[in-house]
Amino acid sequence: MSIFPHAKNFTVNGGQFDIYNKTEPDKQTTPPGYFKGMTHCPTSAHTFTGREEVLTTLEEFFLSGYAAARMKTFLLYGLGGAGKTQIALEFTKRFKQRFTAIFFITADQEVSIQGSYFDIAKTNGVQDAQSWQAGLHWLHSHEDWLIVIDNADDPKIPLSRYLPSCDHGNVIITSRNPDLRDIANQNMELSDMLPEEGIQLLVKHAIKDLHNISEQQHKVAAKIAEELYYFPLALVHAGAYINRQQCLFEYLDRLGNQREQLLCKGPQQPKDKYYYSVYETWNLSWLQLSPDSRLFLGLCAHLHYEHIPRSLFERGVKNLSMVESPLGPSRAVTEAKLILQRIATSEMNLDDMKLDDIMDDAASYSLINKESGGYMFHPLVHQWLKDTIKDNHRQAIEGIVVLAVKDISQKDYKFLQRLSPHVRILQDSANSDYVVRLAVGCIWFELYKFQEAINMWEPLLDIMIDRLGPEHRLTLYHEGRMAWAYGESGRANKALELQQKLVEISERVMGEEYPDTLTGSHNLAVTLRVLGRTNEALVLEQSLLETSKRVLGVDHPYTLNTTQNLARALGELGRTNEALEVEQSLLETSKRVLGEEHPDTLNRTQNLARTLGDLESSRREHPHTLDRIQNLAGTLGELGRTNGALELKQSLLATSKRVLGGEHPHTLNRTQNLARTLGELGRTNEALELEQSLLETSKRVLGGENPHTLNRNQNLAITLKSLGRTNEALELEQSLLETSKRVLGGEHLDTLNRTQNLAVTLRVLGRPNEALELEQSLLETSKRVLGGEHPHTLNRTQNLARTLGELGRTNEALELEQSLLETSQKVLGEEHPDTLSRTQNLAVTLKSLGRTNEALGLEQSVLEASKRVLGNEHLDTLDRTENLAATLEKLGRTNEALKFKQSLVKTLRRVLGEEHPDTFSRTQSLAITLKSLGRTNEALLLVQPLVKSSKQILGINHPGTFSISLTLALTIRALGQSSEAFSLLQTLVGKYKTFMGYEHPQTLRVTQHLAGTLLELGRTHEALQLQQSILETSRRVLHPNHPTVLTAIQTLAVIFNALGDHNNALQLQQPLVEQSKQVLGNDHGDSLTRIQNLAITLRNLGRFHEALQLQQSVIEISKRIWGPEHPSTLIKIQSLAITLRKLGRLNDALEIQQTLVVVSKRVIGSDHPFTFRRIQNLSTTLAYLGWRNESLELMNPLVDKSIQVLGENHPDTLYYIKSLKLLESFPN
């Protein structure tokens, strides 16, 4: 104190010297705002509810060891009526024992604050207090007090001046002004309550007897609270009104009809002494705002309450010089310009400081909140503004939108996306301003919401034609955009009609080589392609490309676009290698032309001083270049070069995210394309994860009913199906189809595609009759809408034929496929990929009808064409190799089939990898062939690790895993391990029933294998019971001629024979043979097998001559159809030999069997189980002839060989050992 050696009676307060003299008191000792006891702290309302999270935060800040080098200050800020004061009071009530003193200061005026500090001094015994600073002095010299500074809303009051400047004490400030955060240690914004807290608060005020509230009352209260956004003051006043009027159940209707009156109505006897209504509370703040702040709040009231972009005003100001539309003056634009001039600089840029001042003024009362890049309202404040502001600025804000979207393009996508919810609200009102409607349509067009663009533009077209004329450039421009929107929304015929007219006018008015004419012709070609008229499109695009090169130059962006479309048309026509060549050259040109010479790249170079390497990066990131990379990747995929396509698409997606943003529509499309490629590579779980995330983004960005979002739902369903989650896919597709019908219409191209996908799913789930009904109706619609020769119609014809085949209506399927192939050859060409696929499908149908040699000829031809057109390693070529091998196997040329399959597996492991689903299925097929050749141990070595890999990669419940597990079970059974096979099959049947359904054809087939295994285990009666159940179910759910039904009858007959019930077997087999002949034909392999089985039954019944006659007939047909050395023919010859032996014609039997053993060794191998059985049968015949030694010479090595090949415990080995012992017991 050496600076003022004689000074006394003063304090230092915030750098100010407050000096007073006890001996010479000022005559004005009492501040004008003072009254005794004014700082007494009231208690919170007895209905106070919830807010525990806020109270806990306050407790932790003030009482739980928060360390501060100065006084602790906490700001509670937010809208008037958010409950700030009540929370502060509840805190003082709960923790008053923790503070030495608590004071309550009403801070709405400075005199009130000063009077309060004077009261603090007087209350605490400072009798000689001469000014309000005496209260501050008392606080400086005492600790652990708490001050509540309430309603510090006026931004003009310098509140920091009135805070004690000491290193102790506690202050809670409540305010509507968020700027006070600068003077607080910690702050929290208050708004709505938690839902359950809000409901409780409403109920406390509305219903006195809280303990007897009914469930219905609670539900209604919950709806009211939700409608009021759980805002505390609104809930309190609504509850008081409900209690007074006893209108709980009527309140929502009253709120809907008279919202403004209700929210203007305050309580008659407020329990918390807050007299103002919700709207009155905010009206008080409104009166404090500047005229400009009121104006801009009024503008924003006509927008959505969330995420109002600041750039809306910035872009509007930049376009203030926009000239008048040819349609005439726009009142909306005129009003907008007058308002925007208030926030514009002389250079017509946004005056940021001016706009900041306007919005800061409103934000200081929490009437609007600032967020990154814009502003937002509380929903109730937004509603209050709409209800109470009488100045209608709606046209002005519409005009601002028009100015802001002038000259928009795809680069403005993010801005348009943010603007869209506000535009949606604006367009809901009837507005006759044509300029506004045109602008709103352009916004929807650029956001890919084409139907909404059409809705805005269609009513204006006649007006434009009337005012401007049909040949005015603006009329033609908007008709062209409408045509494009029609095409994108699935109305391709409507688009075609409009585009043909536009091209005709453009050629006549502006000339054939005018840029607009070329653009119109280009769009027409695209529509022709969509309608399946690809040859017409190709001719048009070839002509366009030549014109464009001549008129605009080879490097002009339009020429590049036309080149791309030409490549796409070539690809659709199956000329994929030509398309690839065009696209590779195009991509290099695009990098060169749009890179270095495009204004965007030049601007980036100038502004960011990129190096030469950066220029290269910029070159590759032009949006058109990205599109061309995507198209090139697609072509690589079509050529079977899927790994190359994957690398391109991964790089492309990363670039697209960086350049356009992760939520841009082009980025979303590229994400989908990447997911598709992952699926093709067998990385299905990765594809699923990508598609699920993509779908959520698409719903949020584009909307749940946007056509692109609907497509992503379909793609997700397809991926789920490929993972075996078919029921989930079905549920998704059923919902999707209903949405598609409602949003796009029943005859939209996408709706038709989704109908087909649903039918395929039903077929996969074993519901072919439902699929058939859908497909028949779909095909008729497709013919009517698209025409009988459209590619989609042809695909639907193919799908219908497949369903007919699965229903056993194979001849109908054949007739359909033959006609389809002729049409495909005529329309698409003989070597188009789709034509090749249809040729393959026809071959499959011919095989199912027993016409296997015809099928072989077709398959050999289609394989050669596939190699020539698509390449040796294209996935379709590899599929056709597998089909050819299966046909060779069916023809008994199993060793040839084996070579094909071994080569195929080797290729697939190299091309797709060992863990690809296609590699799994082909390896499984190879194992089956090895088993059929008697190389069962080799088959087992292949299939055992395959099951493990399939479980890891595809999942334990994937149909592919089920199928491979079935092959394992049957392989084990073939090795004589019937008990182990039974255990596996029993588990599999349970899986099929759970995931495919009890009545799915595949479930029935697997269950049939289980019945066969029971028969092998000697559990014949159990096998009988199970097989009878299978047959009953098959007959109920499938067509009588379905292969599963016919097989079930045959299997049941076999079991009856095993039980010795040959008459029952005969009763089943005789009509089965007739049915098989009728359905499949006399020469079909299945018909021959069933005749053979009937002959065996007749033989079992002792009707040897009838059996012999049948068998001789069957062998003649089999030799003619299959050949004399076909495995099936050999089986039938063996059965004939046994019949001859039964008839006592031992020498005839011997002659046949001796030849049969020689042929069997040569055709299927000496170690094949069938060869073993034929040797054993020959041995038996020799024994019957009394040639014991010759018989033993055969049996002794057979037993050794069987032990070596099949194992000593194999049933066949045990049977051979038993036969040998019996022979040895015979006398010489």
TrEMBL record:
Q: Which Gene3D superfamilies match?
A: P-loop containing nucleotide triphosphate hydrolases, Tetratricopeptide repeat domain
Superkingdom assignment:
Eukaryota
**Which InterPro entries does the annotation name?**
NLR-like, P-loop_NTPase, TPR-like_helical_dom_sf
**GO molecular function, a single term:** ADP binding
Q: Please give the Pfam families that the UniProt record associates with this protein.
A: TPR_10 (PF13374), TPR_12 (PF13424)
Annotated protein name in UniProt: TPR-like protein
Q: Which organism is it from?
A: Lentinula guzmanii
Lineage, top ranks: Eukaryota, Fungi, Dikarya, Basidiomycota, Agaricomycotina
